Every structure is written in C-alpha cells, then in structure tokens.
C-alpha cells in the first residue's frame, strides 16, 4: 500500500480572495493531521524567490506553521531529506521543473514522498510537476528543462486552471479540451484530470478524492471527456 500524502491544488488564488485563502482549511487540516510544524517551500517557479517565499511564509505563519525557502539552503537535497512537509508553489512550470533538475531534487523528493510518506502540497505549477510529465501545462517554455518528465507522484497528468470553452466566444484558437485531445493523439499518454480553479485532489495512499469548489473533467485516450462532481473518488486513476 502506498504511503503518499498529497494535496494538489489547481491554483493558489481565486477571484475575490487572497493567497491560498480558498484552500486554507484544507491545507491546515492536511498538515495538522500529520503533525507538521515546519514546511519546506520550493519557490523555483518564480524568479523573485525571496519575495515569493515571504508571501508564503506570512500565510503559513498565520496558520501556526514555520516555513523555510529551499533556495536559501546551501544543500537543497539535505533540505528535502530533512523536511517535515514539502510545498511547491505555482508560477512557470518549465522554470520550476528546470530548477528541480538543476538542484538534483527529482529523485530525493520522489523518495521522501513515495517511500517516507512526507506530505506534499502542490499549487498550479507545483501540481503539474507532481504528475507524470509537464506536457499538459498551460505555461510558455521560457526555459528548457532537460526533460518534461516530472516527479510522477501520481500515474496521470493534471491540467490546472482548466477552462471550459465559451460557446459565445469568437476566439478561433484551440480550446483547452482540444489541446488535451491533441496530447492524447500521442500513443501511450496517460489520463489528464482537468482541475478548475478552486478544485483540489487529495491523495492518501491509494485513495484520491476530489475536493474544493468545482467539479473536474477527466480525459482518457480514446474516450469522450467526462464530468465528475466534488467528492468523486478518483482512486481508479492510481491503478
């Protein structure tokens, strides 16, 4: 049985609220259930890492948790190996994944999460890198990681910030659904879970539960996309 503990958020901020406010109770309950006191924050998705870390620190401190930015550590691998919990924030997914590779953190994070059961929180880009690959990110490739292969904490992909097509729009470019379907034209690609803003997936061992404010849309190769309501058990995606 898997020991993983993941909280995968589509996004950190929704319209009309502040940073992580919509998911505050989910995050606090998640960390307190594992008796976490200090969180290791990975801010590689943005270039302004000091400011980004301070934003996260203020929020987590207000909830009663300490938070340190991994970018200030002289040994990032040691920081991961000693972490009580890991939070990887959003920004540019390509930049984030490159930072993980550059600092040789892919395997250490995988080991800590999948073998040691260290709690992992991802938001947006941090959720992208928790999956099989970053092929279904919405971001621009502003830098080039050595591979699109990601942490593979779950055996499928997620599309954070999933947006439904607007039938009244005159925009002629591909919809998000069309782009995911194009991805699935490539043989061997995994399912993709479209997480709308304000949705999250909580993974505990071999159980995956949709939580938050909105339903999710699931894409599987050779099948029509399907809608699933909040509280859906997505454990079948882990098999």
From TrEMBL:
InterPro entries the UniProt entry points to: Class_I_gatase-like (IPR029062), Peptidase_S51 (IPR005320)
GO BP terms: proteolysis
Entry EC no(s): 3.4.13.21
Main location: cytoplasm
A Pfam family the protein falls into: Peptidase_S51
GO cellular component: cytoplasm
Annotated compartments: Cytoplasm
Enzyme class: hydrolase
GO molecular function, one term: serine-type peptidase activity
Record-linked Gene3D superfamilies: 3.40.50.880
Catalytic activity line of the entry: Dipeptidase E catalyzes the hydrolysis of dipeptides Asp-|-Xaa. It does not act on peptides with N-terminal Glu, Asn or Gln, nor does it cleave isoaspartyl peptides
Keywords: Cytoplasm, Dipeptidase, Hydrolase, Protease, Serine protease
CDD domains referenced in this protein's UniProt entry, alphabetically: GAT1_Peptidase_E
rRNA-binding recorded as keyword: no
Annotated family: Belongs to the peptidase S51 family.
Function: Hydrolyzes dipeptides containing N-terminal aspartate residues.
Protein name: dipeptidase E
Annotated organism of origin: Penaeus vannamei (Whiteleg shrimp)
Lineage: Eukaryota, Metazoa, Ecdysozoa, Arthropoda, Crustacea
């Amino acid at each position: 049985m898997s020991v993983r503990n993941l909280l995968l958020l589509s996004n950190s901020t929704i319209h009309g609220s502040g940073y992580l406010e919509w998911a505050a109770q989910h995050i606090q309950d998640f960390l307190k259930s594992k008796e976490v006191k200090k969180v290791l924050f990975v801010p590689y998705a943005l270039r302004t890492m000091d400011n980004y870390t301070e934003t996260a620190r203020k929020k987590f401190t207000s909830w009663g948790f300490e938070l340190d930015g991994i970018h200030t550590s002289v040994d990032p691998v040691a920081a991961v190996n000693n972490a009580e919990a890991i939070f990887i924030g959003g920004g540019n997914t390509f930049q984030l994944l490159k930072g993980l590779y550059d600092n040789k953190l892919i395997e250490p994070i995988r080991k800590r999460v999948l073998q040691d059961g260290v709690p992992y929180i991802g938001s947006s880009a941090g959720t992208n890198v928790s999956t099989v690959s970053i092929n279904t990110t919405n971001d621009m490739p502003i830098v080039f990681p050595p591979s699109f292969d990601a942490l593979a904490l779950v055996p499928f992909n997620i599309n954070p910030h999933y947006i439904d097509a607007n039938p009244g729009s005159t925009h002629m470019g591909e919809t998000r659904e069309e782009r995911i379907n194009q991805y699935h034209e490539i043989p061997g690609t995994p399912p993709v879970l479209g997480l709308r803003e304000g949705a999250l997936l909580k993974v505990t061992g071999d159980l995956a539960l949709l939580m938050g404010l909105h339903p999710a849309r699931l894409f599987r190769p050779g099948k029509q996309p399907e809608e699933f309501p909040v509280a859906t058990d997505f454990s079948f995606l882990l098999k």
